[in-house]
């Protein structure tokens, strides 16, 4: 558990890998289905909170894959451990106390209070202290149940964003096209300027259309600036609200893009107009499963092909990369997948010793 403190994917993966994993065809399809199923509830939540339904669905999809992955670690045990070891012990002690209060006040049953290694739980993964600030009893049963009540969880997510400064009717931002040679060295979502100033600089939407007035002020976000550019975005205060959910720009961008696609017509391309600055894009979850299946056929002990690239899969990848003459960095990318698809499967070796 403690080693995971320094391995959060939103901070360790290249942005194109992170987004390929979180915003793929499967998740968009599931998001559209969830939007349809909970349409009336989402509309009521939007009327009360001002948070657009697709944004709430985007958070739900990124945080728990629409309730499919809530995490199975006992929350009290995880927080007790993090309170005594590793960094941020003071913070986790506060969360540990809040988790005990949740149990004491009967909001969530003890056997339901499980979640991530870091102590987040529920359909949209609240920390215990966040629960007390933002959890809502939307279904009217007298309990704020963000584990088993989807209406409570979705309304609580909207309440969190509302508390974080969400502005009703304002866009989170949009992908833009920068003029040739535009200096992005000082790009920052925090350095917000009026949209008119960006227009004066020659910035347009990614398709060349004029910047809309749905965002009064915006900062420039270029997630892969250090790697050579790629997609650029003008982002406003609502993007900052998404950022506050997990303090990662990549995370906020994943929610923003997933929400766009959930609300877009079927067949809308998954990616951005401007490609990422890499010749080896990341893999979707389906492609990760295919990669793992290929590793399993080569005799690697990686468990099941679940689409989650863990330590055993990374070690197996390194072995195959070495065999193929590639850089052995343990990264799952399109080049490795293509190489394994075309490579002859070596015979399994059996140890009879």
Describe it for me?
With 353 residues, the protein is an alpha+beta fold. The chain has three domains: 2-163, no CATH class; 173-235, no CATH class; 285-342, no CATH class. Helix content is 46%, strand content 6%. The protein has helices spanning 9-12, 15-22, 25-37, 39-49, 53-64, 75-84, 89-104, 128-134, 150-163, 195-200, 237-246, 249-263, 285-297, 311-324, 334-342; strands at residues 73-74, 114-115, 173-177, 193-194, 204-205, 217-221, 232-235. A five-stranded antiparallel beta sheet has the order 4-6-7-3-5. The two termini are 34 Å apart. Mean pLDDT is 92; it is low at 1-7 and 347-353.
Instruction: Write down the secondary-structure element order.
Output: HHHHHEHHEHHEEHEEEHHHHH
| Uncertain ranges | 1-7, 347-353
Structural class: alpha+beta
Compute the number of structural domains. Answer: 3
Mean pLDDT comes to 92
The order of strands across the largest sheet is 4-6-7-3-5
Distance between the termini: 34 Å
Number of strands: 7
Estimated radius of gyration: 22 Å
Percent range of helical residues:
40-55%
Give the count of helical stretches.
Answer: 15
Shape: globular
β content, as a range? 5-15%
Note the main sheet: 5 strands, antiparallel
